[in-house]
Amino acid sequence: MSETLSKADVQKLAEHLENCQLEVRDTPKITEAHPNMTMSDAYDVQYVIRERKTERGERVVGFKAGLTSRAKMKQMGVEVPCYGFLCDSFAVPDGGEVDATSLIHPKVEPEIAVVLKHPLRGPGCHIGTVMAAIDFVMPAIEIIDSRFRDFKFDVISVVADNCSSSKFVVGSRCRPADQLDLRTLGVVMELNGEPVAFGAGAAVLGHPAAAIAMMVNMMAERGDFMPVGTLILTGGITEAIAVKAGDNVTLRAQDIGSVSLRFI
Ligand code: 0L1
Ligand code: MG
User: Fold this and answer.
1) Quick one: which of 56, 101, 246, 250 has the most CB atoms within 10 Å?
2) Hey, whose CA ends up nearest to atom 1 of ligand 1?
3) Which atom of ligand 1 is nearest to the CA of 240?
4) 60-263 classified as CATH 3.90.850.10
5) DSSP assignment letter at 66
6) pLDDT per position in the chain (264 positions), as tens?
7) What is the DSSP string of 170-236?
8) How far apart are CA 231 and CA 201, in angstroms?
9) Which of 46, 70, 73, 82 to mutate to test ligand 1, by most ligand atoms within 8 A of the CB atom?
């Protein structure tokens, strides 16, 4: 499926990016050495990183939408969000700790998470299909950690790097989607007790379910889909906030409770 990269290049880039994650070191964006890489090449690299992890026994438990705010999409010159995968090893318990030395330059984002009771397959997936497939909704904090030096990248490099996925924590209060308006659901993220970011679900492409529908339709182009039980982080509601050891982060979400974690 690769367009400009050889199979060997895809494997090499996947190994390089995954090693940067595992060894906690940064790298220049990969398009510097591969300026003709396409988006399809980038997803090839991401899917090989996913294979490497599952071959070692990790489980893919979900997916995330990235670059979901109109401002970030404009800044990156893209019309659609990107997607990445989430493994069981990325999960942090609610109220848990994250060792900041295990990450390069972490940032946190407030998100609305959902879990599916029906599978989602594209093409033709739309907000209605998504809403009918959601089992329940939870608040989530995504910890992103680009492997690229100083968080400087282009969208192709970011997709190859699994959309900066690193860790996530979800709240333990689950509400059925039909009891909530995901567009007006408000969130406040606190850093060390101070509110630092505010927003509502509509910041994610007008409706978090729209981001999911887009992801599902993009995944269909690669014959991929979301099975029952998939956890989906629907996209950052505000800009990401940089964090360091000693920081406490709490997300308070309207109607669905709160979730927190601490960096040590
Ligand atoms: O979850 C996100 O929106 C991040 C997508 C990748 C871009 C970034 O690292 O900011
Ligand atoms: Mg995110």
Assistant:
1) 250
2) 66
3) 10
4) yes
5) E
6) 557 899 999 999 999 999 999 999 999 999 999 999 999 999 999 999 999 999 999 999 999 999 988 777 777 778 788 999 999 999 999 999 999 999 999 999 999 999 999 999 999 999 999 999 999 999 999 999 999 999 888 999 999 999 999 999 999 889 999 999 999 999 999 999 999 999 999 999 999 999 999 999 999 999 999 999 999 999 999 989 999 999 999 999 999 999 999 999
7) E-S--B-GGG--TTT-EEEEEETTEEEEEEEGGGTTTSHHHHHHHHHHHHHTTT--B-TT-EEE---
8) 17
9) 82
pTM of the model: 0.96
Cβ 155 under 6 angstroms from ligand 1: no
Among the listed residues 151, 170, 142, 153, the one whose alpha carbon sits nearest the alpha carbon of residue 259: 170
Look up residue 48 and give its two tokens. 């090989």
Instruction: Report, in angstroms and rounded to the nearest whole number, the Rg of the chain calculated over CA atoms.
Output: 17
